[in-house]
UniProtKB/TrEMBL annotation:
<dbReference type="InterPro" id="IPR023173">
    <property type="entry name" value="NADPH_Cyt_P450_Rdtase_alpha"/>
</dbReference>
<keyword id="KW-0560">Oxidoreductase</keyword>
<keyword id="KW-0472">Membrane</keyword>
<dbReference type="GO" id="GO:0050660">
    <property type="term" value="F:flavin adenine dinucleotide binding"/>
</dbReference>
<dbReference type="InterPro" id="IPR023208">
    <property type="entry name" value="P450R"/>
</dbReference>
<dbReference type="GO" id="GO:0009725">
    <property type="term" value="P:response to hormone"/>
</dbReference>
<keyword id="KW-0256">Endoplasmic reticulum</keyword>
<dbReference type="InterPro" id="IPR001094">
    <property type="entry name" value="Flavdoxin-like"/>
</dbReference>
<dbReference type="InterPro" id="IPR008254">
    <property type="entry name" value="Flavodoxin/NO_synth"/>
</dbReference>
<dbReference type="InterPro" id="IPR003097">
    <property type="entry name" value="CysJ-like_FAD-binding"/>
</dbReference>
<keyword id="KW-0521">NADP</keyword>
<dbReference type="Pfam" id="PF00667">
    <property type="entry name" value="FAD_binding_1"/>
</dbReference>
<dbReference type="Pfam" id="PF00175">
    <property type="entry name" value="NAD_binding_1"/>
</dbReference>
<keyword id="KW-0274">FAD</keyword>
<dbReference type="InterPro" id="IPR001709">
    <property type="entry name" value="Flavoprot_Pyr_Nucl_cyt_Rdtase"/>
</dbReference>
<dbReference type="GO" id="GO:0010181">
    <property type="term" value="F:FMN binding"/>
</dbReference>
<keyword id="KW-0812">Transmembrane</keyword>
Length: 680
């Protein structure tokens, strides 16, 4: 543009000089101007062309990235697949279900593939009809308060904006949710509804799995009706009974460079030795534990406060966010599995996918040792699902044990009941099953193939980045209980964190972690009142909220009423952060501190009872003060009881019917004035 401006301005200075001689030199001037303009235009034309070519260079560099990788259609055509099973998975269960469905397909003369929607262009769904007998299945988990999982966020965004014609698409959806949450299976319901709106043909009804009940049974029940519907739709039949098909082959490395062996990293090899931001689920930051203290003064439980140093990590967080930590399994459990299977756990191996076209080359980072896999990569403490039992059954040499395993993996009512009582309710993990079935001794590599991945654990951050920019605080309680078989089961992450001591003798305790953003946020205006309800470790995010309100007050900001409802069992045993909360109250930051001690008297008192006691004040804050309400903790009982209490308060003081009160609270949620951070 500068060159153009200069070209247009150049002739002008010569015009006044030429005016006096216009008559005598007109033809000369004319020729001169035409030549000059022609020359300048030619110069500008080539200059402009050169200018336009510059942005094309980076585009040419991106050609190297293969476009076909983002097309699942091309991949299906290339590999002869006709069923694609997409999964939206936060903890690995939906991915596991997707893999099981894709493996099922071969029994009906079909070929399936499990696919991560994050890796593909989902607008290609409109082209799926190009493949004969094609079907898209969606195993979609709902995360948090009706949100999509991280890997399904782009798919969800696309669905909301899409106006694509999906009339040639045949689909089915299985949702994974939890009935204790407000928005039960919101993602599964939305995908099912939206695909139909875009013209897709539903070939089997939406499945709604409930993790508060028996998710495994819900899935099996849906699956056993789903496949007959597929057979009827496509006119195919089952080719025979289920058979065990290995997905990975074992390669043992006898002579391997140990620098090429994974030792617990989640993504990049040696990423724990050579840390590079940004840090996320595939590239966690190794944070030093700078503090680990017991919060409670008595009782059987162990409540703890940990502080993780995030200096120089470039990690940013806000009050209300979650910190994810990758734990390690108890070494004694790992050793016992190795002993019972007669395996050298330090053997270095790889499990390589037999499907060379698969994006997933290994079930976990390889090459690695069995010890590392069982310690950092595999879930060995949760009761295994029925597909694992079915695959393992072939290795039981005792016919009674083999039949028992097959029965538990079947869809028969008797088998489901046996699985529920013997595995789920008895909380038998894989080690317990191996111990209780002496003839069951599977090859360790097949066991490693079958076990699900060990997942990160999420904790509400108990600090404010305004006050602690280089530190993330965690408040947690160790999980430990006796099972029906008399075994002592321990929570993986909390017991691992419990043993993370701050720096001693020059050695540091490290925690692989990353931050997950949350919608659990303080109001934009500091003057807005807040009502926080968080019994037990549910107080964690409110420690961050209160710290932030104190900081805002120090900055001279007008801070609204800050009200906390906290609860614990006994005042003298498990009243956490007592001194800190008392100090915030003295300083006038915490304007109300209401504590329910549930077991210090004959009749139990919970936070909802204190809410009822102060109902007039609550209504005034909500109705007149436009207060924001926050609830954190147990979803199954506490969150529901608190919500019912708000219905009662709104109904009584707002002069509304029960239905109107429910609608009022729902609208508060929609407006972001009633937020939940709950777990079950």
């Amino acid at each position: 543009l500068t060159a153009m401006g200069e070209a247009r301005m150049d002739p002008n200075p010569s015009l006044p000089d030429s005016t006096a001689q216009q008559d005598s030199l007109f033809s000369m001037t004319d020729v001169f101007l035409i030549s000059l303009i022609t020359g300048l235009c030619t110069y500008w034309f080539f200059f402009r062309k050169k200018k336009e070519e510059v942005p094309d260079l980076p585009k040419m560099q991106t050609v190297a990235a293969p476009q076909r990788d983002s097309s699942f259609i091309e991949k299906m055509k290339k590999t002869g697949r006709n069923i694609v099973v997409f999964y939206g998975s936060q903890t690995g269960t939906a991915e596991e279900f997707a893999n099981r469905l894709s493996k099922d397909a071969h029994r009906y003369g079909l070929r399936g593939m499990a696919a991560d929607p994050e890796e593909y262009d989902l607008s290609d769904l409109s082209r799926l009809s190009e493949i004969d007998k094609s079907l898209a299945v969606f195993c979609m988990a709902t995360y948090g308060e009706g949100d999509p999982t991280d890997n399904a966020q782009d798919f969800y965004d696309w669905l909301q904006e899409a106006d694509t014609d999906l009339s040639g698409l045949r689909f089915a959806v299985f949702g994974l949710g939890n009935k204790t949450y407000e928005h039960f299976n919101a993602m599964g319901k939305y995908v099912d509804k939206r695909l139909e709106e875009l013209g897709g043909q539903r070939i089997f009804e939406l499945g709604l799995g409930d993790d508060d009940g028996n998710l495994e049974e819900d899935f099996i029940t849906w699956r056993e009706q789903f496949w007959p519907a597929v057979c009827e739709h496509f006119g195919v039949e089952a080719t025979g009974e289920e058979s065990s098909i290995r997905q990975y082959e074992l390669v043992v490395h006898t002579d391997v460079n140990m620098n090429k062996v994974y030792t617990g990293e989640m993504g990049r090899l040696k990423s724990y030795e050579n840390q590079k931001p940004p840090f996320d689920a595939k590239n966690p930051f190794l944070a030093k534990v700078t503090e680990n203290r017991k919060l409670n003064e008595g009782g059987e439980r162990h409540l703890m406060h940990l502080e993780l140093d995030i200096s120089n990590s470039k990690i940013r967080y806000e009050s209300g966010d979650h910190v994810a930590v990758y734990p390690a399994n108890d070494s004694s459990l790992v050793n016992q599995i190795g002993e019972i299977l007669g395996t050298d756990l330090d053997t270095v191996m790889s499990l390589n996918n037999l499907d060379e076209e698969s994006n997933k080359k290994h079930p976990f980072p390889c090459p690695t040792s069995y010890r590392t896999a069982l310690t950092y990569y595999l879930d060995i403490t949760n009761p295994p699902r029925t597909n694992v039992l079915y695959e393992l059954a072939q290795y039981a040499t005792d016919t009674g044990e083999q039949e028992r395993l097959r029965k538990m993996a079947s869809s028969a009512a008797e088998g489901k009941a046996l699985y529920l009582s013997w595995v789920v309710e008895a909380r038998r993990n894989i080690l317990a099953i191996l111990q209780d079935m002496p003839s069951l001794r599977p090859p360790i590599d097949h066991l490693c193939e079958l076990l699900p991945r060990l997942q990160a654990r999420y904790y509400s951050i108990a600090s404010s980045s305004k006050v602690h920019p280089n530190s993330i605080h965690i408040c947690a309680v160790t999980v430990e209980y006796e099972t029906k078989t008399g075994r002592m089961n321990k929570g993986v992450a909390t017991n691992w964190l419990k043993n993370k001591v701050p720096e001693q003798n020059g050695s540091s305790s490290l925690v692989p972690m990353y931050v997950r953003k949350s919608q659990f946020r303080l109001p934009f205006k500091p003057s807005t009142p807040v009502i926080m309800i968080g019994p037990g470790t549910g107080v964690a995010p409110f420690m961050g909220f209160i710290q932030e309100r104190a900081w805002l007050k120090q900055q001279g900001k007008e801070v609204g009423e800050t009200v906390l409802y906290y609860g614990c069992r006994h005042e003298r045993e498990d009243y956490v952060y007592r001194e800190e909360l008392a100090r915030f109250q003295r300083e006038g930051v915490l304007t109300q501190l209401n504590v329910a001690f549930s077991r210090d008297q004959a009749e139990k008192v919970y936070v909802q009872h204190l809410l009822k006691k102060n109902k007039e004040n609550i209504w005034k804050l909500v109705n007149e003060g436009m207060a924001h309400i926050y609830v954190c903790g147990d979803a199954r009982n506490m969150a529901r009881d608190v919500q019912n209490t708000f219905y009662e308060i709104v109904s009584e003081f707002g002069g509304m019917s029960q239905a109107q009160a429910v609608d009022y609270v729902k609208k508060l949620m929609t407006k972001g004035r009633y937020s939940l951070d709950v777990w079950s």
